[in-house]
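TA notes, week 10

Several of you asked for a full example with nothing omitted. So below is the full record: structure tokens for the whole chain, then the designed sequence directly under it. When grading your own attempts, check the secondary structure regions first.
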């Protein structure tokens, strides 16, 4: 049997341990990584665990044997002894608001004001310094 099943568009970083069997369990169980799942650095996936669609396993997480990480979940390492990792539901992707023609016009106007307006006091000050220095010479 296949001991590791990897779906489409899966990212598996370096230094990941895929332990399909252990010393105290004589049977081997497959590790399953479903489509679009992400496994970060220094992760340990033990025998029989399954990472379902669009889930993320963060740095340093040790997923226990036969554990199923459900769809769109994030497993993050916790430094306490009571919980090896924290599960969170992934939020939807942020969609920025639509930009209108008025927004572009406002941005262009602001750029003109900042560019021209920011240099005018400098030009006036430079002219004043030059005229004063001519009187001293």
């Amino acid at each position: 049997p296949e001991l590791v099943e990897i779906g489409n568009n899966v990212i598996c970083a370096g230094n990941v341990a895929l332990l399909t069997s252990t010393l105290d369990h004589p049977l081997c169980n497959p590790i399953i990584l479903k489509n679009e799942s992400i496994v970060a650095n220094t992760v340990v996936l033990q025998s029989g665990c399954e990472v379902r669609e669009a889930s993320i396993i963060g740095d340093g997480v040790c997923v226990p044997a036969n554990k199923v990480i459900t769809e769109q979940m994030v497993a993050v390492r916790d430094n306490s002894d009571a919980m090896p990792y924290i599960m969170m539901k992934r939020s939807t992707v942020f969609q920025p608001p639509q930009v209108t023609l008025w927004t572009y016009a406002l941005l262009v106007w602001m750029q003109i004001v900042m560019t021209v307006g920011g240099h005018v006091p400098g030009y006036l000050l430079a002219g004043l310094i030059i005229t004063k220095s001519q009187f001293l010479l």
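The first strand starts at residue 4 and ends at 6. Use that as a sanity check on your answer.
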